[in-house]
Write a structure and sequence with these properties.
It is built from 8 helices and 5 strands; from the N terminus they run H-H-E-H-E-E-H-E-H-E-H-H-H. It is an alpha/beta fold. It has a single domain (about 10-175), classed as Glucose-6-phosphate isomerase like protein, domain 1 (Rossmann fold). Helix 3 (about 55-70) links the parallel strand 1 and strand 2.
């Protein structure tokens, strides 16, 4: 039920602006050297594996798709055709809280196998963050309106999509790719 003091569409505008401003501010706090290191790890990997649960997993799948379209060998952990991770690989885990059992178990396997582990989380002090070879933390201070404008993990998920899309832009620049070369690798769905 709409709030009586809010005109139709006004909540949408307020929420969209709130999410955009909070996500932009969080992404601007990420150390550019960490982004450069992430690019180097991704480019140096024989294979790239991506993992996330829930909505983070959906963003991870979108990232893996773009990695493949950029000409890199990428897989989504949990798919039946995903090969075994090895020492020459990089694994990119997205987890808002950084405490989910499946993400921590995945990180433990990655570390045991000796692959590089890039962690994207909103909790720099989480168990998952401590396992990372490289930590990309997009942290948000809590405020009173966040639950109304950006419920649950919305801020982290929005930031994750923008961050991974930004990584793709840098990867295609470094690799000399363009939209035409990416389109040739785009899956044809029927």
């Amino acid at each position: 039920m709409a709030e009586p003091d809010v005109a139709d569409g006004a909540m949408f505008v307020r929420a969209e602006r709130y999410i955009g401003e909070r996500v932009t501010a969080a992404l601007e706090r990420i150390d550019p050297h960490a982004i450069r290191r992430a690019i180097d790890l991704l480019l140096g990997a024989q294979q790239i594996f991506v993992y996330g649960a829930g909505r983070s997993g959906i963003i991870g799948r979108a990232f893996a798709m773009r990695l493949v379209q950029a000409g890199l060998r990428a897989y989504v952990i949990g798919e039946s055709v995903t090969p075994i991770v090895s020492r020459k690989d990089a694994v990119f885990i997205l987890s808002g809280q950084g405490e989910s059992f499946s993400s921590i178990q995945t990180a433990n396997i990655v570390r045991r196998e000796g692959a590089e582990l890039i962690v994207l989380t909103s909790r720099a002090g989480s168990k998952l963050a401590h396992a990372a070879s490289l930590l990309l933390a997009v942290e948000f201070e809590e405020d009173a309106v966040r639950p109304r404008f950006a419920p649950l993990g919305t801020l982290f998920e929005s930031a994750s999509l923008r961050l991974t899309d930004g990584l793709i832009a840098e990867l295609i620049r470094v690799r000399g790719e363009d939209e035409a070369s990416m389109r040739r690798r785009h899956a044809i769905m029927v």
